[in-house]
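User: Please predict structures.

Assistant: First:
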Amino acid sequence: MQTPTYAHTYLAAAGLRLPTNWLDYTILAIYFVVVLGIGFAARRSVKTSLDFFLSGRSLPAWITGLAFISANLAATEILGMAANSAQYGAYTVHWYWIGAIPAMVFLGLVMMPFYYGSKVRSVPEFLLLRFDKAAHLLSSILFAFAAILIAGVNLYALAIVVEALLGWPQWVAIVVAGAFVLAYITLGGLSSAIYNEVLQFFVILAALIPITILGLRKVGGWGGLTHKLAETHGHNFTTAWGGTGIGSTNPLGANWLTIVLGLGFVLSFGYWTTNFAEVQRALSAKNLSAGQRTPLIAAYPKIFIVFLVMIPGLVAAALVPNIGTSASGLQYNDAIPYLMQELLPNGVLGIAVTGLLAAFMAGMAANVSSFNTVFTTDIWAKYVVRGREDAYYVRFGRWITVIGVCASVGTAFLASSFSNIMSYLQTLFSFFNVPMFVVFIIGMFWKRASVKSGFWGLLAGTVTAMVNYFVLYKRGIISIPSDQGANFVSAIAGFLAGAVVMVLVTLFTEPKPARELQGLVYGTRSPGMSEPPAPGDDAWYRKPALLGWGAVVLAALCYIPFSF
């Protein structure tokens, strides 16, 4: 069964209107003042293009680690994962404990030495060093396009929430939020975005924790919630692996093999290891050790944030059994706004609204800041206007930020055709991140991979994933029970197609000379990889390997209560 969609972008806006008062608006106003203040303060530190695009590579690991997870705490996390839980149940835990933690650990322990050691300013620039200009330009264009689409998701999600909760028209919410993001990124560059993301991380938690606690209280605790959902949705709705045997049926419409391979490996590693909106935070760290620890520090809150987004979705499904259908008048995306209406008093409501706005602004800022970096350094400076003074590219970076925000406003309405915006985001990831991941992983671990194989592998993977989704699935040529299941299959198809084409092209083209692969392929080293440890980096909590394996073990232990 496919995700239902509606002609109207938000049917329940009037019904979800909340009684906000002066206290709620005061909290919201204070937040916006602080956000702009951080932007003005960060402006003083921007003197070069490295300062604007990568914070001068000067930030400590705890700052970049919190910014790393905050950049992900956007529409994907808040509305998207709550919607995912309302639609699919406890299967949402897979997106965290096998769909995030292993890939974040892999990024920190294995891939960051290559990224940071090669001194690249962006993820696509690594492909320029490992392959050629064709692979670099294609990856830059694809990433810039995807960043604008994903930024639009955050704007759309923000608009429907603000329309429902505050009564603002969607276009007003989009313009106001876009203007604030534009202001603080244009002023302070990446530093402004990162410091705001640290603030937004705590504001988001302050919004989600009351919703989760009061939601559980409303349904009689965890026991009452699972009992009610078992009656209305079946026992498998509250388990992680129930009904996932091959040939079995479950709400997610996917078996254990497609979950492990499609989500746990292909989609997960594709997103966390090649998505520059995330990797950019690690590249801004002050040294290689801090860069490696950035995703590992972020992995620990990621393990537990699932409860703050999954439980509200489950509570919404228990209170509104027909959610997601026209009979209820509520989309899956309405789970969080509905609970805010039902549960939160004034004051707490203001914090919750501020937290949601913070989440969407953090996600949009992450994608816009990565977009301006890639477009300026990887497209404009390398292929359009080359060799200009550094100040010119800082000015251009600010102007392209304006264009990126305006384009995000345009793409915001593309998300309106999806009742579950998580499905939309996973579709984008299968198209853009997965093919890039296969090129990276083969290029990093196979010295023989030829210069030309990067371009053709990336193109083949992207086209195959799109054909599988739009032609084979959407036209009913192959039968897949849900959009999410189709995303998993598209991701696997794109990965396999990219890998096969890279191998075939490599067999008939020349490899890159070995001297040009130093620091770019596993088993080789660059000077940046062998830097001496910074003072104090020998402490146990600063050892990347210990942090990484600790996160994996902790995530595995969390699976136990949800396994059956």
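Second:
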Amino acid sequence: MNPVAVFHTAADYLRAHRWEVPTYAMLAGLVTEAFRVVEQQLTTQLSGLLTPNLRQQLDALFTTEEQAPAHSHRPYRLTTLKRSLELMRPAAIRANIQDYTVLHALFTHVHPVVQALDLSEELVRYYARYVERAQVFQVQQQADKKYLMVLCFVVYQFYQLGDLLTETLLQAVQTHRNAAQRETQERVYRQQQDSAGNLRQVLDGVVAHGAALVELEHVAFSFARTNAEKVAALLAWLQTPDVAAFAQLRQTAQQLRKGGGGSPTGPYYQVVEERSRALQRRLGEILRLVAYEGRPDSPLAQALTQYRNRAGNPGSQPLATFLKAAERTALQEADSPVSLYKALLAGHVADHLKAGKLNLVHSLSYRPFETYLLDAATWAAQREELLFHTNLTDLRAPGPFLDALQTKLATAFARTFERLNAGTNPAVRQRADGRPRFLTPARPAEEDAPPTRPLFPEPGLISLHEVLHTVNQQCRFTECLEHWSPRHRPPRPAERVFFAGVMAYGCNLGLTRMAHATKHVAQSTLENTVNWYFSLENLRRANDAVVALTGKLPVSRLFQRAPGQTHTSSDGQKYYVAVDSIHATYSYKYFGQDKGLVSYGFLDDRHRLFYSTTFTSATREAPYMIDGLLHNDVVESTIHSTDTHGFTEVNFAVTYLIQVAFAPRIQSFQDQQLYAFAGMAVPDLAAYALRLGKPLDRSLIEAQWETILRLIVSLKQKHVTASTVLKRLNSYSQHHPLYLALRELGRAVRTEFLLRYMDDQDLRKRIDDQLDKLESTHQFARAVFYGQNGQFRYAGKEEQQIADACKRLVQNVIVCWNCLYLNEQLFQARPVERQALADAIARMSPVSWQHINLQGEFDFSDEALTDALRFDLGALLSVEWEAAEG
């Protein structure tokens, strides 16, 4: 849906096939006409599919609840459906549920029409996002295609709201569990303190009662007494105060048991029951209205169907076969079984959604796994062509690929342990327990030495506006910020408006504060520009333009440690979120009692930040690692490093298949298990206290080979983002055969890497250096994102990502300006001085910002006070008034 992208693709295609390239006007005209024809065909086809009833329902979206003109307190029905509240407050959840109910009713009518039109997901998203940005009158006035736009909006918004309510459910359940576990621990601790006396009393009573029972046993089995005497002694004992006191201990024991003393889980389920109502206020309607689907024979799916059919009232005998034994026992003993049942049901629904046993069919993020891959029919018909275009022809058959991997693994085993046994690995020392200790060489002192003369201007000398302007003059990154509507676009705003928008988000100042702080940019103009031009895709293209310019500069090559390779790395940086947002979660380790998110950034060895994204702090970083490697159009990584948080065996497998060497820095890597294929000769690892896992199963990988290829082709063709599909795949854990096959393949790749990591100290040093480069950019990011105490103040996912993309754009622009400045110094230096200057530059980093004035300037000149207000203090002090009577 981007005519400019289609134009460039067509031109590239013509050049690649050595066909004649027409003039710009002719090719642009062809592309524009093609878009117009497709839209005309769709609107014509749609007019024949719209029934009078459906047309009336869509027209109703352009009216208000009352028969009166719209205003801020009486919005159009279409306006109210745009308001997805990405918050965890019960009121916001209720508003989302109301919108979901309205959209569901519309969706049941429009979905058959969308299927009949065979609209692609990209086309639906494009028109839907246009409706989100546009005013209602702007949509309504396009009489020829307004129904197509609104149709797509209903479908896309229904999908988005379903995902949002699902995220609400998952986060609410996790928060509920964390709170219940925390309160259980606190309650158990208090009970241990409070019940010590009661427990001692019960134990003393049991001991005394036991002693009395021993005496009664002697009486009962005594031959010196008659039966009548025995009965009399028993009756006399029953009348003693000790028996009455022991009877009272039953109540004390029951209190101890109710408090958790008699339960292996303590008072956990009691706490869950007590906190259930708060959970129900958030999730009751979600479970009742959102159609999660599972296998028909699934006990949970049946219980969920019963719950919906009974309008959220499970009744006295709800289906409980999906519950664990301990949960069923707790349900029988609960004071309010219905409350406990609802909490347990919500918890199991969340677990099954994560595990892929429940799915949301009409969804973007929670669909069945198979729907994310290329269509099976398309794959069967175009397999060879797809493998050729994605440069994966070497993976056509699993046999040769796995044979080569097995040979490579055997060579790594032999070389590493041959050098260990011979003592020829200079970076290995023996520990006291016999285990090897692998050393990484320190950085030479001359690399840390400061340059003999300053290479950058004085601190604060260059304004950020000047930096943005200078770099924009060289690469025109603002031209990448295109209007959402490629046709019928209004006059383009001035460059300063784009700079103001980038700084407002990138420096975390906010649009209002930025508009108030500048003289030549009106707030309405700034807000309108951001609305129509600042899409996430546009900002990523703007970043790509700056990154590409930096890569062209000769000076940037000085920062590469291994020419011919592109070494990249990724890491997450934590940020507080100062507003209520469903996309921010608690993390006591990083945020204490507050919420936050992760900005996950990618850096190459030339200090170019080529990709970033955001997600909740409770999400693991590993699924997002592949996104940055595949979803950028400038940096092609050959080796990629992360810390331990980015490492999984599935990531090892996927990166190996897309021909990127994955080289993470794994904490305590000596404790990782090594693996080998069955029948492979492996040296004795016992002498080095290393562990060998069970043999790898080639048949498991071969059985899933076609699905593995479909997955990799889907990722390389950007049919789906890696984070979306890998999060679903990882959540399936051991139950999904594709996960098991990728894990098996990843174990082989990881073992080969670990063996090289042990053997090659230079590899360890390069990994450390690249990760150090990335960690140095974290302080840089804090300096740039200084407004609002460095806290995100955006609740919506898209706005959080736009702010993150603008922050990255500011960082990339500063790095690019620094490289331009250093390149200028090299150009102006005398030939005899250039090598020494180049060596000095190579030892430093272009990630420097002390000379950039990020926070603007105060104007204390007399001219700035020309229009200052002046007050007549004498007149002001003489003002009198009388209080009104009555």
